[in-house]
Design a protein that fits this description.
Layout: H1 3-27, E1 56-58, E2 64-66, E3 77-78, H2 81-89, H3 114-123, H4 132-137, H5 144-154, E4 163-165, H6 170-183, E5 186-190, E6 210-214, E7 221-225, E8 230-234, H7 239-247, E9 251-252, H8 265-271, H9 278-281, H10 284-287, E10 288-295, E11 298-300, E12 328-335, E13 337-338, E14 342-350, H11 353-366, E15 372-376, H12 378-386, H13 393-409, E16 418-426, H14 428-444, E17 448-449, H15 452-461, H16 467-473, E18 477-487, H17 491-508, E19 516-525, E20 528-538, H18 545-562, H19 581-584, H20 587-600
Parallel strand pairs: 4-6, 5-6
Antiparallel strand pairs: 1-2, 2-3, 7-8, 8-12, 9-13, 10-11, 10-12, 14-16, 14-17, 15-16, 15-19, 18-20, 19-20
Helix pairs in contact: 1-13, 2-12, 3-6, 11-14, 17-18
């Protein structure tokens, strides 16, 4: 047989044992569902993403670790992280190159109105805050460059809220809106502060007193109707608190966005959000049966939530994607589901992105969709590999076997591989059927299983990777995410178009190093998919790095539209996309929405100026 033949046979036997072991773990029913993120509360960073116990930091000249214990990454040294970053970005990342944030901007003197403040004191059980730190925290979301990078490294926000209100009930919201309308104040609703479209940025030319309305004290599950599988919930509840409360009773909403630990029900509705388990539980507009909006002219709601009705144009359509322009969302009636009997994970590896797309399209047609399935391109696949901790002996052997099978036997090319992360939920029969369908189609499209543990880890990594932005900001790396929905036949056109335009724009502007672009297909529909991009490049040597960034990003959004993509899939319009609206909406569409604004808020109390209501330059 020869030495090589004996070695190959041994490797194949080892690979078979690994596959059998992984498969046995995949088919064992779960006794207790694991949480996909840490359900514990924690102190949040005032301006950057997430919890103060979690951050990426150097633990050596060439290695980093993640602090805390919230995520699978935490507590481990990541030896591949810095080498991968240096390879794809064409620059070095060393502890001595870290740029410290500038001294924190002071909020500046707040606009005051004695009569307004007297009215607010009577309306609210908790006094409004004019504390500088509170005002600054409530004057931005998580838009990377125009908010976080600008605040930390350029030291300025152009306009800051004047005070922060904390209503605790619907009655207080009504009184707050009435007082603001009577005294000519401006209200900007604030939920989890995770917005990435600039919707929380204060309009620079707003001369009235701006009040940020922090809804997070309205966080109760008011009623759980177990017979009809509905819950009435206050809009300020975070996704984490909602799931924790429902899970204690044996239920789930199923809404699982990347920001679920921090974002709120009201924010999901206001941005028309989507969650990773959309396939099983629906997008937010399918989850919410009814919702209440308090406006200066009265409340917008429908009494009695029913499975469906036909009584004219449903008022709730004005809430989805409203982005704080029309009023304050106070509560919603949502669908709930019994916790699934089992939750199983999987990972799939394809020789190329094109194979993965064909697989997803056929899987969608088979009607056996898992709760979540996300296809990542090669850059994001390698990024995930770079986030693995240093392996022990058994892991090194398993990794060597996997690489031999992939690269030597199956002849996958390292710079072309794509992969899927899979989460299956439901009854044992449902999930088993999904697994069988996935396995059959996987073979048909030239892919192989990557194992359940990789699938579980890949899904849970989603909640930790947002912290990476703040690590790279220290090196003047500007980065952002943006998303679109596209028909099936335009997926590759859109991705290639963005890749080519980014390279051309970076060359035109003399960008240091190389730009980073990764993307994944996060949602599928009968007619197409959602593509989620992560883009970044160095701001070193640029006179106005933020301005250059926005010029480049603007070109990329135009390329997406030119190639048949949507303006947004779930982030919303806010202030950063409003100039594109005439390309995607007819003139009369804007007129209709302006008419709605006039009917609900004739004095423009809700003057956040997002989307169609943006102030024209």
């Amino acid at each position: 047989m020869g030495e090589y033949g004996i070695f190959a046979a041994a490797v194949l036997l080892g690979a078979a044992l690994v596959v059998i072991w992984n498969a046995s773990r995949r088919i064992r029913p779960s006794r207790k569902l694991d949480s996909c993120y840490d359900l514990a509360d924690g102190e949040r960073y005032p301006h950057t993403w997430g919890f103060t116990d979690t951050r990426f930091e150097f633990d050596g000249p060439r290695t980093v670790r993640v602090t805390g214990n919230r995520y699978p990454l935490c507590g481990y040294t990541l030896p591949g992280f810095i080498p991968f970053a240096e390879e794809v970005l064409g620059q070095t990342f060393r502890p001595e190159d870290i740029v410290e944030p500038v001294p924190q901007q002071r909020a500046g003197e707040a606009r005051r109105d004695e009569a307004l403040e007297t009215g607010l004191a009577a309306a609210l059980s908790k006094p409004v805050s004019t504390d500088d730190d509170e005002r600054l925290i409530h004057s931005h979301g998580q838009l990377s460059v125009d908010e976080i990078y600008r605040l930390l490294y350029l030291g300025t926000l152009d306009r800051v809220v004047d005070m922060v209100a904390y209503p605790t009930s619907e009655a207080e919201v009504r009184a707050l809106v009435r007082v603001a309308n009577e005294h000519g104040a401006c209200l900007i609703p604030f939920g989890g502060g995770t917005n990435v479209s600039g919707a929380l940025t204060c309009p620079v030319d707003e001369e009235r007193v701006i009040i940020s309305v922090d809804m997070r004290r309205m966080d109760r599950i008011i009623e759980l109707d177990e017979e009809n599988l509905m819950a009435t919930v206050e809009a300020g509840i975070s996704g984490k608190a909602l799931e924790r409360g429902l899970e204690a009773r044996g239920y789930t909403s199923g809404h699982d966005p990347d920001s679920v630990e921090l974002s709120t029900l009201g924010g999901w509705i206001a941005t028309n959000a989507s969650g990773m388990k959309k396939n099983r539980y629906g997008n937010i507009e399918e989850i919410v049966l009814e919702a209440s909006l308090i406006t200066p002219t009265g409340e917008v709601e429908t009494h009695r939530a029913t499975p469906r009705n036909s009584v004219g144009i449903p008022p709730r359509v004005f809430l989805f994607g409203s982005e704080g322009n029309l009023g304050i969302i106070t509560k919603a009636v949502i669908k709930v589901h019994p916790l699934p009997a089992v939750r199983r994970y999987g990972s799939l590896v394809f020789p190329r992105m094109e194979n993965g797309v064909r697989f997803l399209k056929e899987l969608r047609g088979e009607g056996a969709l898992p709760a979540s399935i996300r296809l990542v391109n090669n850059t994001e696949f390698r990024f995930g590999q770079a986030l693995k901790p240093a392996p022990g002996l058994l892991k090194r052997i398993e990794s060597a076997v996997q690489k031999f099978v992939l690269l030597r036997l199956l002849r996958f090319k390292p710079l072309e591989i794509a992969a899927c992360t899979v989460v299956m939920e439901g009854s044992v029969a449902e999930v088993s059927h999904q697994q069988q369908t996935i396995s059959r189609l996987l073979r048909k499209h030239g892919g192989i299983s990557g194992g359940a543990s990789n699938g579980r880890r890949g899904y849970m990594l989603t909640f930790a990777i947002a912290y990476i932005r703040d690590f790279f900001n220290q090196f003047q790396l500007l980065g952002e995410t943006f998303e679109t929905s596209v028909p099936w036949d335009r997926i590759h056109d859109v991705c290639r178009g963005v890749e080519q335009e980014l390279a051309a724009q970076c060359e035109r502007h003399g960008i240091y190093g190389k730009p980073y672009l990764a993307y994944r297909v996060t949602q599928t529909y009968p007619t197409g998919v959602c593509i989620y991009f992560t883009m970044g490049f160095s701001g070193k040597g640029l006179d106005d790095a933020a301005a250059v960034y926005h010029k480049i990003e603007h070109h990329l959004r135009q390329v997406i539209l030119d190639h048949g993509g949507s303006l947004s899939h779930h982030h919303g319009v806010g202030k950063i996309r409003h100039s594109f609206l005439p390309q995607v909406q007819s003139p009369n569409t804007a007129n209709v929405m302006l008419g709605v604004k006039q009917a609900l808020d004739p004095n423009n109390v809700f003057a956040g100026a997002n989307g169609v209501y943006a102030r024209k330059d």
